[in-house]
Amino acid sequence: MLAGFLLTRITKLAKLPYVTGYIISGILIGPYVLNLIPREVVDGMGFISDIALAFIAFGVGRFFKKEVFQETGLGVVVITLFESLVPGIIVTVSLHYIFRLNWDFCLLLGAIATATAPASTMVTIRQYHARGNFVNTLLQVVAFDDAVCLIAFSVVSAVVNSYAGADIVTSEIVLPVVYNIAALAIGLAGGIILSKLMTPSRSEDNRLILTISFLLGIAGLCAAVNISPLLSCMMLGATYINMTRDKELFRQVEKFTPPILSMFFVVSGMNLDIRSFSTLGVIGAAYFIIRIAGKYLGAFLGSSIVKTTKEVRNYLGLALIPQAGVAIGLAFLGRRVLTSAMGDMLLAVILSSSVLYELIGPVSAKIALVRSGTIKIDTPHGKAKNEQETGQAGKE
Fold first, then answer.
1. CA 69 to chain centre
2. pLDDT (tens digit, 9 = 90+) per residue, 208-226?
3. Which domain holds residue 354?
4. DSSP 70-95
């Protein structure tokens, strides 16, 4: 945490988001540079990721109020489908015809290209206190993105596996989808129970204890079956806010999370092996650029079809660049479907590009927030821009 704090003093001078400083500090103190933190310690800190995603997703859930979702509704689904599937299709077709790679490899890489890592974007939004229609749309899109990615990868894996004779069974593809549906049900039930427990007489201390207990419990259940707690904890937050309209709980939890989020990104940096850049190669560089172009184009087309505001249409794609956890997990699974050489190439491309995505993702998200008018670059943390909106939100 101290390393993360010190690096943010430097990135702050460069007007970069805090997340960038956290990740760079992790790379520097990690086992691949200064080796201040041994590899075995880093390997034992995987639980930090689950806990951080649980808190992030719970906070996102409050943006899924019934009236807000009624405004965006089908539009968010359409935008999510386009921003997810368009880059997947473009990556698949481009890499096949440009580099003459086999369809199995290209299909799996394209399916993984649909994934977006929401954590860095969400923390950047939080840092600059961003609010408004652009932020609501962005948060809903990144929340649904994981579901689309899982379904796309499941379909592609089934197709590839049907004639590849790979060492992978159907249950390994179908079960993650089933587990995510079950996780949504658990989040819904948890939100209902939590709303009943939060009586007016409940002290602030006990409100926080109960909420964290639910979040850690759900994160643990998801970790036990190797899925992200994102969807489940988002459902927990969405159910709670719609049943209680209690914004104060979210503010209380938000004050608790900065150390957790700092550790999450520093640990992410410690896991990034900068030597993997050497394996990126021409194919990896092409994937890196084509996916960014595909994300932007998909978001632009989806937003144009549902006739969103100009700000959403023009800048949403810039905030959808990061790719990490889910993509890396799917890359390990995809490697087993392919031959040894192609599987190693798939994993190397995803791992090395994820380093770059996580470094430029927070910066591109900030640019999107500034260009969309959600925050002002010349005001500390965008407070002046959002003072009126935040005050109004408090009144509501």
1. 20
2. 999 999 999 999 998 888 7
3. 2-116+132-379
4. HHHHHHHHHHHHHHHHHHHHHHHHHH
The SS3 assignment for 221 reads: helix
DSSP 8-state class, residue 63: T
DSSP 3-state helix, strand, coil percentages of the chain (rounded to 5)?
A: 80, 0, 20
| Residue found by looking up tokens 């889910």 in the block | 326
Query: Do residues 277 and 352 make contact, with C-beta atoms less than 8 angstroms apart?
Result: yes
Q: How many domains does the chain have?
A: 1
pLDDT of residue 354: 74
- Residue 236 inside a domain? The answer is yes
Confidence of residue 242 (pLDDT cuts 50, 70, 90): very high
For 130, phi then psi, to 5°, come to -75, 140
Distance CA 389, CA 396 (A): 10
Q: Which two tokens stand for residue 342?
A: 């192609």
Alpha carbon of 221 to those of 179, 190, 216, 240: distances in Å?
10, 13, 9, 20
**What angle do helix axes 340-371 and 18-29 make, rounded to 10 degrees?**
140
User: pLDDT-based confidence at 163, cuts 50/70/90?
Assistant: low
Q: Is 167 exposed, middle or buried (0-12, 13-18, 19+ CB in 10 A)?
A: exposed
* Residue 203 in domain: yes
Taking residues 356-372, report their average pLDDT.
Answer: 84
Residue 14: half-sphere exposure toward Cβ, Cα within 13 Å: 12
Predicted confidence (pLDDT) per residue in 44-92, tens digit:
887 888 888 788 778 878 877 777 666 666 788 899 999 999 999 999 9
375 by Cβ neighbours in 10 Å (0-12 / 13-18 / 19+) ranks as buried
For residue 323, being part of any structural domain is answered with yes
